[in-house]
Amino acid sequence: MTMHWRLIYMKINPSRLFPHPVVWFANDDYKNSDFTMDMNHRVDFGKLIIAYSFSTENDDLINRIDSGDMSFSIHVEAPFSMFRKTFIVSDIEGEIEIETRFLADKVDILPLIIANKDLDNYHNKDLNEDYHGAILRIPKGAIMGISDYRYLYIENEKNDLGKKESIFTFVKNQSDDIMKIETEEQKLIIKLKENDFNKLQMLQSTSHYQHVVYSMFIIPALIFALESIEEDVEIMRERLWFRSLEKAFKANNIELNKTTVEQRTSYVMAQLLLEDPIGRALTSLTEIRGEN
Amino acid sequence: MEISFLAQDGLFQLKSNPSTYLKHYRNDSNEWITKELGYNPFIIYKTEVTEFQLNPEADEVDNAQILYTAMKNISDSDATDERLWAGLTHGILWQFMRDNLEYTIDTNQRVRMDDNLILNRYFFNTERNAKKRSMFINNLSKLWWAGRLTFDSEDRQSPFKSIELFRSAFSHKLVNTFSSSFMANENARFALFDAGLFIKEEGIEIKGDTLVPLTKYLNMLGGSMILDMFSREELRDMLINYAKDNLDEIKRR
After folding, report:
1. Same domain, A101 and A86
2. How far is A84 from chain B (nearest CA, A)?
3. Tell me, what's the ipTM?
4. Which residue of A99, B78, B151, B225 lies most exposed, with the fewest beta carbons within 10 A?
5. Integer Cα distance of A149 and A11 in angstroms
């Protein structure tokens, strides 16, 4: 009974046992068959559109799908907004649409082949010899094929006032502690003691000191954040700041992960992102000195 | 009427220093927020909602119906946003939140005024590790989501009949029912409620864990097949049959 529980999580555990053969990289139920799905997605006028293209070389499965015994399908789940739906599709290629108002944060996607009805005496030419002679009864709704799991994020990039949101936030720390940086929230939080916080707010009221502020606070926060990046990118992507930095680095053809940070060093990467912050800070300070 | 959400910076500020601000949560007014932050952190939300009033001493099932009915036009996506609920708990529903807090402390010996109580009720306290769970704990978002997930738009006569299953042990039931990801499937969810109402009609009291065997059975079904292939009626029959076969176990819960 316990084996059934694993599908509760979108990523089907490769050690899961099915009571019937499944085309899946994690087993050898079929000798030479594969099942894959190419996809790309876009968000258009409040809709997430997933364009898909399925492929399998197993003729018997294709015949089953053509005859309506089975279907290609795409299981989509956005756990936070309680969205869960398996799209049963009839074509090998096409698009599915989901209104983004039903989605939040992470969207899990799992391509499947499923049985549309009870199949009493299932056979497939490519089945592993272990199944020879076995009478296979496939119940309606059974998973017959699994392709690679993927996920995407629905970004709510607009901030409170409709502008792009900063990934940094300054917070007044009520205790008289030294500056702290938190990387475990959605944004990078820079905590300052009250006195410092108030002075910083005064400085931020003019643009003169912007680059100096960057050098004093944003660079160390970025370095600290880059150093905190763990091996598992999927876990890191749960944080908005990581996804945001990932996008910014990608625009410069840099993949953001632990290895890149180790190779390029966090200090260099932070400067890359802010485009010569030290030089600009020094220029600002020189100008301010000149004005005085 | 207009509602406001809490700007992210203000939200972080309040949430990061609960002990400092704890004393204010028994204030009659929320004016301290603007004073403490040095600016007004409330921002008017793009969508207006219908005028409504919650009763701080009422059963959560009743408040959930009022809140969801008034705020039905909020998208699911926005309803997962902590800023919206923190804005309401600290904003227009300040008085309700405060009175409800007093009422809860007065009527429940185990509830004590501390940082965690405030973080749970006014914010998404477990957002970092279990955001979904915190949606079912925040005092207002749990009401909205309870309404959202039990409201049956196809039943014009009594769209809220399933919420009656949550009449006692409200929060406990919310967490143990909706933590199952299969409950996000609408047919499966209402099939389970239908089976729950069947049990209730059999004269069995729906206690905190009465529906747990049904949720487990649904998880098992969903683990072995794709539930989307089945109609609400088909799933309901499976669940009711299971309930009939396991009435003794269900009664013991």
Report:
1. yes
2. 5
3. 0.93
4. A99
5. 6
